[in-house]
Amino acid sequence: MKTSCAILILMACFGLMNAAVKRDHNNYSKNPMRIVCYVGTWSVYHKVDPYTIEDIDPFKCTHLMYGFAKIDEYKYTIQVFDPYQDDNHNTWEKHGYERFNNLRLKNPELTTMISLGGWYEGSEKYSDMVANPTYRKQFVQSVLDFLQEYKFDGLDLDWEYPGSRLGNPKIDKQNYLTLVRELKEAFEPFGYLLTAAVSPGKDKIDVAYELKELNQLFDWMNVMTYDYHGGWENVFGHNAPLYKRPDETDELHTYFNVNYTMHYYLNNGATRDKLVMGVPFYGRAWSIEDRSKVKLGDPAKGMSPPGFITGEEGVLSYIELCQLFQKEEWHIQYDEYYNAPYGYNDKIWVGYDDLASISCKLAFLKELGVSGVMIWSLENDDFKGHCGPKYPLLNKVHNMINGDEKNSYECLLGPSTTTPTPTTPSTPSTTTPTPTTPSTPSTTTPTPTTPSTPSTTTPTPTTTDSTSETPKYTTYVDGHLIKCYKEGDLPHPTNIHKYLVCEYVNGGWWVHIMPCPPGTIWCQEKLTCITE
Ligand SMILES: *[C@@H]1O[C@H](CO)[C@@H](O)[C@H](O)[C@H]1NC(C)=O
Ligand SMILES: *[C@@H]1O[C@H](CO)[C@@H](O)[C@H](O)[C@H]1NC(C)=O
């Protein structure tokens, strides 16, 4: 009796000692808000600007997600997706997991996780696996072995989605919950983290998640608040609208915006401390059918051709877009309800996110009080610095979440349409933006007396006292604030071979980015391009 007690106590002590030396899988004490960064690791195969693990900045994210692992379609166990890139069993393999997890040596506060699934994995295998207790057990054990072998800090479940696509809407929801319970129990002794990437769509959420229960089990959930509209639809729309427009009264548009999704999670059992909101570093694009129809909701001709880096139809990453904006003539507008830009050249129409719109999404999520931001994905940012300093979007996220601007609620496009009462007040004098684009369109819509014939409206810039007057329209070009006081030409902020034209057309302000003819540069005094 006594001896067995002593042994038990000894074992308990060893257990504690073990726990004490074990890695804290969630050590980000320095940065209290989560910055969860996904990496689409197949981007190492991009022909232009391949993205490698060494391109990751280990100090700007609190959590890094390796996308993706898969499950074996016969055994239903977790599997390395691309042994050549990911694994380290053979000398010729590239040790991706190891290099990724070793980023924690550079930043001890960093947490690294494996993400399982993703869109292209489909739903069927997962549906089959969770329906069978034996498969589930094998799966859970395989995950434990996997995390131990490759030294990840936890698992991120990215099944898209329980009950949808080739899943089973009748039983997936309960089976998914059962799986998450079993994973949670198995992870407990090791302290592994358990998270999920979850759908932004109300219809998918309703079929997939027992939110109240899942909220207790997951360390947190990454809400994929993007992909609301894209080339699978035949009209132009935005990838990630923050709010709905007043004219959008149909069900689809009422539900399909960031604000609706986040409130839906909060109203159906998710808590703020368990919610992390996604921001996209890419846009979704269409080919233009008719050059005279380039408004939101106008008919499109299908997905845009593959981007020159990412190679995916209908998708343009920020690193592609910022370079296209520099090379060609583009027309860009910000929707004041979407709080995000869209634009077109002569072939492509794209709804995307940039520095300004991301600042608004960050202000929104901070006002909402959720526990962090998720990024899809690092390789989509201008990590090479082709258009300015490297990683412009990631740096903005880091600054506004855990950096110098962490007390700022500034939305660079003006006040958000909600009138928030921030719980942690910032210093309003410095951070509250002077509302350049006011939020009620009825009052702000300028009434230009003469429609836009640039020749007659050519401004004499010196007469405008730009410090006291309120601009009619503000926007960002290459991350620089552009103020339109009237219609007319302005210098391009970063490129002397270009100029900007502020124009009011069809009820909205536009900033056109115009090239000078070859061999000439812009001269603002003469309002024309001159020979260098
Ligand atoms: C968390 O990380 C810091 C280093 O940034 C380290 O000093 C501390 O011991 C860690 N805490 C735990 C519980 O691992
Ligand atoms: C945001 O969503 C909430 C809940 O659905 C709604 O009450 C509110 O009006 C929305 N805000 C805006 C500006 O659309």
UniProtKB/TrEMBL annotation:
Residues 33-404 form the GH18 domain. This is Group 15 allergen protein short isoform. One of its GO terms (biological process) is carbohydrate metabolic process. Residues 409-471 are annotated as: Disordered. It comes from Dermatophagoides pteronyssinus (European house dust mite). SMART domains: Glyco_18. One of its GO terms (molecular function) is chitin binding. Residues 1-19 form the signal peptide.
